[in-house]
Design a protein that fits this description.
single chain; about 200 residues; mainly alpha; about 90% helix; about 0% strand; elongated; disordered N terminus
Length: about 200
């Protein structure tokens, strides 16, 4: 029995070492020695950072799952071609989503779906009663979004234009610098040739 117990202990040690090497690489033994000798501050900081990153990732995934679930629920809602009150409820919920999603680059796919649903619902509601106060409010909201997007597009185009101008200026400066370098090189070459000719004349004399 003692032999088997020793064999089991040894197998356990080797298994633990293999797992440690898989997790920590070639420094597994050093990590174990460090733990026996005392707390390694650098290792503790690394573990805390990994734990922090894990929590942040989990929170991000939960937020995306929540948004996806919310969007899926909204997509299941159907607009009524006759009763406008139900449509207003859906439009209001979609409106709050769009306000947030349209300004978040990571949520653009959600925004596009919600916006398409909103535009369709607003069109149906306007056909029922265009003078309804909430329909008018939702129409103004739609105009507000369109103005925001137009402004964003204009700013993006100006930024791209400015960037292109900067690139063009850099190319022009590089071209001008190249010409100056070529001229200087030609002058230096001419001077060298002149000096060589003078040297040859002096040698002949």
């Amino acid at each position: 029995m003692g032999f088997f117990n020793n064999l089991a202990d040894e197998a356990g040690k080797k298994t633990g070492k293999a797992i440690g090497n898989a997790l920590f690489g070639g420094y597994a033994d050093d990590q174990r020695i460090s733990i026996r000798g005392g707390v390694d501050n650098s290792d503790t900081s690394t573990q805390l950072e990994l734990h922090k990153q894990t929590l942040e990732l989990e929170a991000e995934l939960k937020e995306k799952e929540r948004n996806q679930k919310m969007l899926d629920e909204l997509l299941l809602l159907e607009f009524d071609g006759e009763c406008i009150s139900n449509n207003i409820k859906i439009l209001t919920r979609l409106s709050s989503m769009i306000d947030v999603w349209m300004k978040d680059e990571d949520m653009q796919s959600f925004y596009e779906v919600a916006r398409s649903k909103f535009d369709t619902g607003l069109m149906i509601s306007q056909a029922i009663d265009a003078n309804n106060s909430m329909v008018i409010v939702m129409s103004k909201k739609q105009d507000e979004w369109n103005m925001y997007l137009a402004k964003q597009k204009e700013e993006q185009e100006l930024a791209e234009q400015k960037q292109q101008e900067q690139i063009a200026n850099l190319k022009l400066k590089a071209k001008q610098l190249g010409k100056k370098v070529a001229i200087i090189a030609a002058i230096i070459a001419a001077i060298i040739i002149a000096l060589w000719i003078i040297l040859m004349i002096c040698l002949e004399l």
